[in-house]
Amino acid sequence: MAAHGVEALYSDRVKALAADIPRTARLAAPAATVTMTSPLCGSRVTVDVTLDGDRIGDFGQTVRACTLGQASASILARHVVGRPAEELRTVAKTLKAMLKEGAPPPAGEWSDLAVLAPAQRFKSRHGSILLAFDAVVAALDDIQGHRPDETPAKGLPDTMRV
User: Fold this and answer.
1) Residue 45 needs a FRET pair 20 to 30 A away by CA distance; which of 39, 107, 129, 137 works?
2) CA separation, residue 103 to residues 11, 100, 115, 140, 143 (Å)
3) By C-alpha distance, which of 107, 47, 106 is closest to 81?
4) CB neighbour class for 11 (10 Å; exposed up to 12, middle 13-18, buried from 19)
5) What angle do CA 134, 53, 24 make, to 5 degrees?
6) Spatial CB neighbours of 137, under 8 Å, sequence gap ≥ 6
7) What CA–CA distances, in Å, run from 8 to 4, 13, 63, 100, 126?
């Protein structure tokens, strides 16, 4: 029988991802550093990003978030290096649509994000889940010198350095 309600949010897979977050060392010379805080829950993520052409060259992060935010940051860190910048923007939009509109989860290497789909019914959790992805997109925008028309989902940039 499937778990319902809040307990469905904290599956063994979510807890395992949150307990094992890769790439938690900060980069010595990032092209951009972005710190974002979710105003609703206070979760805070700092990401360091470098680009190699149009692909993520290196990535580091500091995550102070709830279990769901940690799980999301863990999935991001497992796949981010070597991925095209535009792919990260697309995955962030797809994750947001999954949470806010019930859209299908990201596919392929990003399919682990489906484990966060039960949070769709809990809007108070969306900001923390989106935080690391919003921070990476903001860092990419800094590096690539453009800002999309749409502001990051729930995260508010605290500091940005190029």
Assistant:
1) 107
2) 21, 8, 14, 24, 29
3) 47
4) middle
5) 45
6) 88, 89, 92, 148, 152
7) 5, 11, 23, 17, 15
Contact yes or no for 126/100 (Cβ under 8 A) = yes
SS3 content of the chain, % helix, strand, coil (to 5): 50, 20, 30
Instruction: Please tell me the pTM assigned to this model.
Output: 0.87
- Give pLDDT < 70 ranges for the chain: 1-5, 146-162
Return the pLDDT at 1: 37
At 49 the pLDDT is 98
pLDDT > 70: percent of the chain: 86
84: DSSP letter? B
pLDDT at 152: 43
Residue 140, CA atoms < 13 Å, CB-side half-sphere: 27
Cβ–Cβ under 8 Å, residues 59 and 23:
yes
Between CA 107 and CA 151 the distance in angstroms is 24
